[in-house]
Amino acid sequence: MKPFEWVQPSTVAEAIAALEHPGAMALAGGVDLLDRMKERLETPSRLVSLRKLSELGAIRVEGGVARIGANVTLAQLASDVELRASHPIVGEAAGHAATPQLRAMATLGGNLAQRPRCWYFRSEAFHCRKKGGVTCFAQTGENELHAIYNNKTCASTHPSTIVTALLALGAKVAIAGKQGKQREVLLDQLFVAPETDVKRELDLAPGELVTSISIPPSKLKTAYTKQVAKQSFDWPIVDCAVALQMTGNKCESARIVLGAVAPNPLRATAAERAVAGKVVDETTAREAARAMTAIASPLTDNAYKVPIVETVIARTIVAAARAS
Amino acid sequence: MSDDETPDKPGFSRRTFLRGSAGGAALTGLITLSGKAHAAKTPPVVGPSAVPIKLDVNGAVREVKIEPRTTLVSALRDQLKLTGTKVGCDRGACGACTVHLDGVPALACTTLAIEVGERKVTTIEGLAKGDTLHPVQQAFVEHDAMQCGFCTPGMVMSCAALLAQTPKPDRVEIRQAVSGNLCRCGTYPKVFTAVMAASGQPAEGWTLETRGVGDGKAPPTGTAWVGIAGGSVTPEPRTVPPGEAAPWPTSVGLSVVGKPATRLDGRAKVTGAAKYTSDIQLPKMLHGKRVVSPHAHALVKRVDTAKAERLAGVKAVFVVKVQEGATLVDPSTEQNGKFPRIRYAGQCVAAVAATTPEIADAAARLIEVDYEVLPAAIGLTAARAPNAPLVYPGPVNLGGSAGGGGAAKGLPQRANVRGPTEQVNGNVEEALAKAPIKVTGEFATQVQTHSAMETHGIVADWGPAGLTVYVSTQGTATVRDELATVFGLPKTKVRVVCEHMGGGFGAKFGAGHFGVVAVELSRRAKAPVRLMLDRREEHTSVGNRPSTVQDITIGANADGSLAALDLVSHGSSGIATGAGVGWAAMRMYPAPAQRTRQHDVFMHTGPGAAFRAPGMPQGVFALEQLIEELAERLKIDSLDLRDRLDVDKPGGVAAEADRIARKLERRIGADRIGWKTRGAPGAGKGPIKYGIGVAQSMWRRIVDMNSACEVRLHRDGSVQLRSSVMDIGTGTRTALAMVVAEDLGLSPADISVEIGDTRWPIGPASGGSKTLVGITPAVRQATHEVKQKLLAAAAHKLGVATTDVRVERGKLSAAGKSLAWKQACAALPTEEVAAIASRPADWNGPKADGYGGVQFAQVQVDTETGVVRVLKVVAVQECGRLINPLAVQSQINGGIIHGISYALFEDRVVDRATGRVLNANLDQYKVLGARDTPFIDIVLLDQYVGLTNTDAHGIGEPANVATAAAIANAVYHAIGVRIRELPMTPRTVLAALGRTGKVVRS
Predict the structure, then answer these.
(1) Which residue of A has its CA nearest to B31?
(2) Chain B, nearest residue to A4 by Cα
(3) The whole model's pTM is what?
């Protein structure tokens, strides 16, 4: 890594002030940031350590609302008993992520902010669109791991599996900014489409910091699937979170989210519309899934994802309907 | 039946209530920020230059001087000299650097030292309490939960943290806890077993049964035992030259050999005390860094090192002038200019040595290289085309670096296609035309990288007295010999040392280009230089298993006998050769007409290197599937077909022994996997299908006569064994001690085994599964000679004839009198007696073509996602006389695990446009982990061939050959569709099922 300064603020306000320094970046668990710095994808001149920001480290469940600080680790998310009771798929997604060591180090905030795993993006040798170049190398290159939706500008996929679950639950993000400003947005709105700005994934202004996620009370029936090829540590082929508003065995409305198949976490609205108002069974679940896969636009090497996405959506809808 | 059908459990026990902030302070209320502006304090800015900090490490407060960018692993290893924590990938994917922060597993490579703060760091060195090992460490040693040992510290740390949280974890929790610790040697089964044992629970799922034969008596004079467990053993006539150690009895009559023994280096490995190449720190040692080409095919027009040379701390800069890879028979066919031509992305252009790794890295980046980029041949199909860009414009003479056949000198070469290497028996075309039954198929296999947990690396010390190198190697003498040649030094002036190495699997013979570069840097800098490759370089430039495309046709008669076998193969070893696959096709099943035509296809990618049974997993993947197809066509059970085919094997007595062995193994394995319960292929209901498949392996018994050792016995009773031979994780160190201990009436722990140093008699390189075949007879012979002197001394002391003296456990006795071991040694005429012995020649008995085994796999296939999971493998193997069954089990586990990983996950992905390796890491290059490990049931048949004084054979490769084929056959059984391509990823399986388009490989 290139040399950098390091500063460790004690409050969010101090952190934001420290981040105003040109070339400053925020350091949480460091799991993705250090990787990118070692590969020279980013060369911050200053790292602002968030580790001492105790106000970002809590999980609270009150009145069914879960509030999770940005510094909460994935391991804490996975093992928190109250959160498992109130919003089970969040802990489930966290428990599937990465490895035990990484889960102990990685924070929720860092997990949201992690950057794509596209091997062209991750290699210093390829100056792709996301890094300011003019080419998306994946589109004509090796794209077996890449997006099958919204892939015209950039074929990368957002790698966070926690986000998939959070989006299905309608989570909101609290963001702190300069001069004590705060704002809250739906998590859906935090992501930037490549067509809008390919060079970044999150809609955060310079000097802004995600401080917490809040998840509204959930009377929904939910399920989560992370589909991998290898069990021990694998990026997903696709992951899927389903939250169903059910009356008996009829689905009133659904939120279905897909990860790892598009540059941003994807609301599978075609599937949501298809299952709404239906009695949920294997047939209707499969039909809903097909509504989504019918609009996939795979690249040369990743068409295999389409039947897998179909299966995963269908199975997850069924699992959600059966959830207690 | 599978361990993790249950949903994933939380990272710690679900019974844990783990709340609280990452910062360790108390909870605040709601996470709100007050609207009032805080009087924001400005926290102090640290760095970028170094500052002293305090770290609480293993219970002591230590001061280190670090820059903010210094990782914890660097602070621990380089400053605190706690080298037990290893760097495997430096990217957080492999777990080798696992330490504890406040008792929680963390990756030291992905933690900045300055971020640790008040948290307590525990490293592997901090687990034991004085001499008392942590229960996990103790269990690892007892259950042999290690091989090369490089992943072991990280693995132990993860397990220790688990037990602190969950005193009685179940198997799912154990798998989960180590799912972030990669082990390339495949110790996962033993890790699970060790943790179950350490937590006082029974361990099931990974079993070893050894079967012996014979009554334990010595064979009659003039004979040696021949036979295999499950058959009978008979004394066969052999002439043992006078002065050589006599044949042993069958192993039930031995005290040490044949019984499970824990590793002599177990304690060193579980405590982090074992030193690997990157742990070597010499005074004034510099750090090397290479500059490599980002282009696959290019001319180097200009290299400007001026800025690098001016950087403070840089002590040597070196531009490569000698071409890497093959040399052209006629160099005038290529105009390269001043610098060597670049033939692959990752080829070394220059190198620097500097006082710190950071300066070396910065200096490397300051070297300016101008390239003229040329079109490159990437992808087997593209590279084979007659008008493809040429890797070599004319013939090259290059030995097969990848070990597989097809690399003889003087072969025809058209564009990038070199070959064929042709082997012919009879007239294949005629025989095929007449054969009533034909099965044919095209099979493709991928490039696999060795991915040992320790990357290649060297510490080169060019000094006035000579050159000393510490290097991660499988063959210390191979490194010595190459460096002596390259640098024009006598062998006596080159010393190579490797006490422990972190895995090789065939890629670590010779000095390597990087090794020569490091020595050159040391020579110029007049200081030791350490050059360790990083994980990207490891995937790119130091070896791989070549790809293959194989077209095989088998012609058979109605009675099942083979009439003909025809194989054409093409494969790429990048800029090297050795992509052959034909040995299995020629040798496993007899046919009166056989032909193999094997071709190497040059490509602008990194060179291949011998990889665990070169050519064999590829060849057997194809062959054993076709045999299954043939059995199906003939409507007979494929095990019965193989029985039938073995009958035709020529070769007399030796072939007969082979036939008996293989048939036995088939039957035992079939019984244990439940072969008779199989239904028709693809018959299962529902999307999740199950299947059972079989494949068998053969491996050549290779004898390396350059196998020597020294045994030294001292008057105080201590014993030394010395040889340059390596223990690459297989347990050689312990096996050799067992051989010595057997004949001297001692225990293995009584023998001080000193290996891995070319100062000592030169032993065989550890590869080809030939280590024990080579070295153990030499060890027995040297022991024998030393023993004669001891017997004479004891006889003199006891007043009896030398021939009356017997060695028993711990004593020597004759005619009712005895001397304790130490008493007898005290009677030696000189302070020490020693013998250097070279391996005696094989005795005059018939030699089989090889030896082998049979594996059965049980798989689950999700036909909607294409995911294949291996649930269980049964392996029935022979490997001569078993020396240490515990180590053999670890090797077989490892070979099977390699085979599964190769069959399902691994694939080196190269960008077709630029030739760069895209997945040069350990998360997108997928290596099997703890949660993908099936149950493994091993039956070992003790075997005697009566050819040497130990009859020991190797097992590393035989255990790896059949696995992928067995899985492929099991997948066919599950889904009724044959997969002829590796790896069997979801993409490949879904394509075979017609649920997605065919995979088009470039």
Answers:
(1) A55
(2) B48
(3) 0.96
